[in-house]
């Protein structure tokens, strides 16, 4: 089997590094740009060694100017390049928000399909690393709401490797949310595998009593919740959404038709979060299959707290299991 020679166990961050390296090797039009991505290799070392091996013309250290970085990437894409932009931390993306939603997301429609903008914007997101203000936010719903943008988030090293390849190959702009507190979680990566479609959800664990849907950093938490629930005789199915826009509702629907119950989990605030859209759509699609209301677990409708309080803010095992118990009690 090819897996014997090509599979290796990598941290999620290293899997992204290897994916970027492969993209740089395969296509001379691929560029990487961002604050400290070159000589430093990024604050999380995700781009470590790439500038050394590919040069400063392809792995570019930029000024601290997110709007300028994204605007430059748009111009490069118009000239045939495939820029991969890093936003150093989630909370730093907002100076570039206008460029992303007003220009990047709209250009294809504005040009009646004649212009393509193959830009990937990497955003390390979420909490759990003990960081200061503006370093632990989950802004994915803001971008998933914008037509013209694709939004994805891997939960494991294998998906990180392959989804980055697919995002770079896409002719549409992709916001690639990287769960920073999972950067050091290791997983098997088979670099010779044939990946599934970028926007297809994955059943990470099968079950019969209730469906847990999550993406990015919360998939691991949901898998831990399913393991804990099994000790009490409860069978939970875990669906890794992988893509927040578009959403693979068919996979979620199939699971909920089997289990009759759904709990959606994400780090971002529950209020106007991605879980609200999933809950509404699945309620429409599965109304006669549901044995309980669709429940949501997430952050609170408040600014992300100081690091000492983040464990109280972030949804953890107990909050997920509490919602599971509530759903099963109907």
Automatic annotation (TrEMBL):
A Pfam family matched in the record: Transketolase_C
InterPro entries assigned to the protein according to its UniProt record, in alphabetical order: THDP-binding (IPR029061), Transketo_C/PFOR_II (IPR009014), Transketolase-like_Pyr-bd (IPR005475), Transketolase_C (IPR033248)
Gene3D superfamilies per the UniProt record, alphabetical: 3.40.50.920, 3.40.50.970
SMART domains attached to this UniProt entry: Transket_pyr
Record keywords: Oxidoreductase, Thiamine pyrophosphate
Required cofactor(s): thiamine diphosphate
UniProt feature coiled coil, ranges: none
Signal peptide range in chain numbering: none
Residue ranges occupied by any Transketolase-like pyrimidine-binding domain in the UniProt entry: 10-185
Family annotation (PANTHER family): PYRUVATE DEHYDROGENASE E1 COMPONENT BETA SUBUNIT, PYRUVATE DEHYDROGENASE E1 COMPONENT SUBUNIT BETA
The protein, known as: Alpha-ketoacid dehydrogenase subunit beta
Organism: Streptomyces durbertensis
